[in-house]
Write a structure and sequence with these properties.
About 45% of the residues are buried. The protein is α/β, with parallel strands linked by helices. It has six helices and 15 strands.
């Protein structure tokens, strides 16, 4: 399969988990009806972005794998014949929690999961309170639409993960986010296109959108959406999403572009891994 129709969502926190899940189910049904073969949701899709505070009550959002959300969306994937990238709060065992994306194939089977490697601990991004760092490497998942990888939010600031996914054979890398205004705005514009161009694959970047004041009042973060798909040449595929409104975006890509771009630039031929040893020094 060379032509792939990709769907991505950007949503505002509704105020409760069940309505968020229903919203994403509805978006998925709409995407499938429009011919989408794979869909990706935003980071921690069924809850608020609780990293702005440090409160143990949000541990209640964590789920096992398999668990309620993976089982529900596995059934949906099978029903609709669509691949789903499902970012959840994972409980591996009591007190061992991860920021995770589960990859569900179009037959409803769970192909595997990716755990976010890089965990920020900054004002309104207090994630070390909630998550252990990922410990499952950078897996590449063989799905009905091709080989895909995942980087989650803060991971995007670190080029090594992008390259590991490329070396693993990823054709599309999904990057679910909870990214807010400030110093990140310019990075949002350039990092994923740069990663796509440097590694010669497609990047799908989803972001939350809107103000979560129904959860946090005056402390709330106003997420800026602006989700997009970028090709292996670093150019946007279609328009960038709204910076203010919830949206379902659907984009058509051609995986043959990967070969065209890589043969043009030959970055993989000209790499010098023998010279990179110092990059992994502590």
């Amino acid at each position: 399969m060379n032509n792939v129709k990709i769907a991505l969502t950007q949503c505002t926190w509704t105020g409760d988990k069940e309505s968020m899940i229903q919203l994403h189910e509805d978006y998925t049904r709409k995407a499938a009806a429009e011919g989408a073969q794979i869909i990706c949701y935003q980071e921690l899709f069924y809850g608020p972005y609780f990293g702005i505070t440090q409160d143990t009550k949000y541990y209640e959002y964590a789920e096992t794998i398999p668990g309620p959300s993976t089982e529900r969306f596995s059934a949906l994937a099978k029903e609709l014949g669509i691949v789903i990238v499902l970012p959840i709060y994972e409980e591996d065992q009591p007190g061992v929690l991860y920021n995770t994306a589960v990859v569900i194939d179009s037959d409803g089977s769970v192909v595997g999961q990716y755990r976010k490697h890089h965990i920020p601990h900054l004002p309104k991004f207090w994630e070390k309170f909630y998550f252990r760092p990922g410990n499952m490497g950078y897996p590449v998942f063989d799905t009905a639409v091709g080989k895909i990888g995942v980087n989650i939010c803060y991971d995007r600031h670190f080029p090594e993960g992008w390259r590991a996914l490329a070396l693993g054979g990823a054709q599309i890398v999904f990057n679910p986010n909870a990214t807010a205004p400030g110093v990140s705005n310019r990075l949002w514009e350039i990092e994923q296109p740069a990663a796509a161009a440097a590694n010669g694959y497609f990047v799908v970047a989803t972001n939350r959108v809107g103000l979560e004041d129904n959860e946090y009042g005056e402390e709330a973060v106003n997420f800026y959406g602006s989700s997009y798909v970028v090709g292996p040449d670093g150019n946007f595929v279609g328009e960038v999403g709204s910076s203010t409104d919830p949206q379902l975006l659907i984009r058509d890509i051609d995986l043959d572009e990967i070969r065209t771009v890589r043969e043009r630039w030959q970055f993989f031929r000209d790499r010098r891994p023998d010279a990179y040893g110092s990059l992994v020094a502590p």
